[in-house]
Each structure stands twice: as structure tokens, then as C-alpha cells.
Amino acid sequence: MIDFQRKDHYGLQDLEEIVAILRAPGGCPWDREQTHESLRRGLIEESCEVIEAINEQSPEHLKEELGDVLLQVVFHAGIEKDAGRFDLDDVADGICKKLIFRHPHVFGDVSVHDSAEVLINWDQLKREEKHQETYTDTLTSVAKSLPALWRAEKVQKKAKKAGFDWDDAAGAVDKLSEELGELKQALAEHSNVEEELGDLLFAAVNVSRFVEADPEECLNAATEKFISRFARVEALARAQGKDMQEMTLAELDKLWDQAKHMDGLNGNMP
């Protein structure tokens, strides 16, 4: 039996101790086997579940999911502590120093009038901190592990700060149409289709940025709409005593139009 004091309420230090016990000899074999690489996907999944809890506006669910993310942070720091490179206090030290450095209007003598000035100063300090000497440096610093749509959006926002951007949404929409034409040509010629498809998606993100719409949320909403409408199509097919796989595409398209019309009657977007 592990020598551990049970409590009615635990804190961050207790979590660090529990992770250390789990990873120590005599603890949990699974926990001892984990590495940064093996935990990588778990961190992504737990972060997504935090977003899900935020979308649900559920404080209890959010508290639980934040705990799961916190566990990931403590676990990764524990691996590094065992290796003798850094520990959780060093992680806290780093973020504390970063916050103090990037808020000179709070911890220093810099004056700002609004949040817009705060963000300008933040970007300048970040470039100084990370030794980013060119605008290209700021683009290449965007994490490749981000979801592709978010990464494209962030790169575009940084390019805008260099003055490289459309004047308005119309230019972005025109570019989207141009890229669609190039994709059609690539399909007809059976060449560089993936490249042109990527250009089309990148252009679509540009449009979303101009209309201040999150591209990930837009695509997720479209996916949810597709699932809902697909379910309606399947229900309509079953009502006719048919299996979707046995129907022609023309028959399915007709049901899809019917489902789309029903969505419109229910007040959903067409």
C-alpha cells in the first residue's frame, strides 16, 4: 500500500505528488511507460473536450475537462523532472516571466489607451522575445501542429500585419473564384489537383477572416448540417421502404432537395 494521505480536498501540489507516485517504482506500470510522444494525442483530445465543455456552457463539465488538461501538463512536467531537465515550478516560472514581460503597461511604466494598443505591444514584445527579425519569421513560427484551417488563418493574420492583404472581402471572394477555376482546370487535366485544392481551401479561409467567422466553426457547422440532412434523407428513404444503397444518385438527390426544403420550413439555413 502506498503511503498517501487522503483528503477531502486536494490542490495542485497534491496532483503533482499523485503523478509522481503513479510514475514511481511500485506505482502504475502504464503511467511509467508513458512518454511525451505517447501522450501527445491525449493532450489534443483533452483540449478539444475543454472546448466542447465551453460550447455546452457547463461549469461542472468545464471543471472536469480542465482537470484532464492540467493532468497532461503535470504529467509532461513530471517526465522532464525525472529526466532532470525541468519541473512544474520551472514551467510556472517561465509563464510568469512571460506574462510580466508582455504586460509592461501593468508591471512597468508603459502607458496604453485600449486593448488594441495592448495587442500591438504584445506582438512587438513577442517578436523581440523570440528573436523574430523578419515578417517571414512570424509566419514560420506558427505551429504546424495546429488544425490546418486555424493555422492558415493565423498565418494570414500575420501576413496582414506586414501590409500583405486584400483591401476588403470582395478581393478575397474574387481570389476564391479564381482558385475554384484553377481547381476545375487541374481536375480536367489530371494534374496538381491536391495543390489547387489546398489553394482553394486557403482562399476560403481568407474569406472567413474578412467576415470575422471562425473557419473551424464554419466547417463544423456545415458538417453538423450535413449529418442532420443526411439523417432526414435516410428517414425519407425508409419511409418509402427503400435502402439508400439500393437507390440511384438521382433518387437520393431528389430526397436531399426534399430534406433541404423541410429544413427551410423549420427555419434552418438552406
Task: Give an overview in words.
There is one protein chain. This protein is mostly helical. It has three domains: 12-100, Orthogonal Bundle (Helix Hairpins); 142-213, MazG-like (Helix Hairpins), CATH 1.10.287.1080; 216-265. The chain contains 13 helices and no strands. The chain has helices at residues 12-23, 29-33, 36-56, 59-83, 88-102, 104-107, 115-129, 135-140, 148-161, 169-189, 193-210, 215-239, 249-265. The termini are far apart. The mean pLDDT is 94.
The major sheet is characterized as: none
Q: Indicate the radius of gyration in whole angstroms.
A: 25 Å
Strand content: under 5%
Shape: extended
Structural domain count: 3
Alpha plus pi helix count: 13
How confident is the prediction overall: mean pLDDT? Answer: 94
Number of strands: 0
Distance between termini? 62 Å
How would you spell out the order of helices and strands? HHHHHHHHHHHHH
At the third CATH level, what is the topology name of the largest domain?
Answer: Helix Hairpins
Fraction of residues in H or I helices = over 70%
- What would CATH call the homologous superfamily of the largest domain? MazG-like
Structural class: mainly alpha
Q: CATH top level of the largest domain?
A: Mainly Alpha
Describe the structure concisely.
With 270 residues, this protein is mostly helical. It has helices at 12-23, 29-33, 36-56, 59-83, 88-102, 104-107, 115-129, 135-140, 148-161, 169-189, 193-210, 215-239, 249-265.
